[in-house]
Amino acid sequence: MTSTRLGRVARTISGSGFPPAEQGFTAGDFPFVKVSDLASKVNAHGVVGAANWVTRDQAKSLGAREVPVNSTIFPKVGAALLGNARGRTAVPLLIDNNMMAVVPINLDASFIYWWLRSVDLGELSEGGTLPFVSDTAVRDLRVPVIPVEEQRRIADFLDDCVARIDQIIAARKSQQVSIEARFEAARRCAVLGLSGPTTATNLEWATRVGRDWRVRRLSQLARMGTGHTPSRGEPAYWFNCQIPWLTTSDVHKFRRDQIDLVDATEVQISELGLANSAAVLHPEGTVALSRTASAGFSIVMAKAMATSQDFATWTCSAELTSVFHAAVWSRALRCCWGRSGRVTWTGRGSGPAVASSVAPGGRGPGSLGSREGGVGAQANAVRILLHPVATWVAQAQVASMRSRTWREPRVIRAATWRIR
After folding, report:
1. pLDDT tens-digit series, residues 376-404
2. SS (H, E, C) 293-306
3. pTM of the predicted protein model
């Protein structure tokens, strides 16, 4: 197949400077397109707008050249050049000096758009700390010489394929939203026992629960604790580290409910560090809740491990399964956000009240199809709840531990709990 220089069948237009004083207008004769505008949803099927508009008089004073319809525009400088973004103009417009346009002369506009999308302009970059491509380098590109009818056939085929792909993507996104909404509704129903008769509660995060479910203070069902960081100034504390140590660097593993149990951590501590700090080795099955930078994410420990002070922990009694407790946190602590980004503790008691499916006599309501009462019904609920489908924003504001705040770790460590 023969080829020719792009400069023989198309012309290039370089953008012009766009001073900040001229920016900020949302109406005018021309959209003044910048690199960031290429990612706008408005321009997904042809560039028709921009964040900034100018009048003809402004364009003339700026010396900006008009880019006609059916041109292909793209970044020519900076990191955006390496991303190979392209746009096809659907209206006359202007571009800033970080962009370039290719205007076809003896080529089908759609064909040259698709052909330019196949070219990696990063390979044409003239080096330096700031990647850039010159007009000359673009004009020197070799473009295949084929009949215009063939160009149109190729372009129409690609337009049709992309349209079909866009429809599939839109349908998949719609399905995902529907699935997430249904799963969240099922999760809430299972956690709160809403599949049968209900009764009102005074819980902020659950105004109604199953009629046979009892609302109990969490301190009656689990012992609360926290963690600590051994001194970094003592090298001996960080030698021969073999004890799993849960930190904020592990949150990414369960931020989106990817896992229900954590059995390995990014960082470990030593027995000496554990013995000479306020850190505690929590038993297997302990529930940990992140409470600082990444607040509101819960996980169950698959083995004994310690945590940093960025976590609150609960060691559950026989009346409360760990996985059910973690599911409750996923519902309770993601419904109201502490403004500081940290879990804040207000009021009285050692955590929120939780709904328990244990009915008088130790039998569960059986609303989830379980023949087991009490904890068995809780575990059955969790098997429905903890499927990793959707993501919820971590939000947390719950009742305080005996009017104390999390900024007093020593008080928390020294406190004791009893299962009433």
Report:
1. 333 333 322 222 222 222 222 222 222 23
2. CCCCCEEEECCCEE
3. 0.54
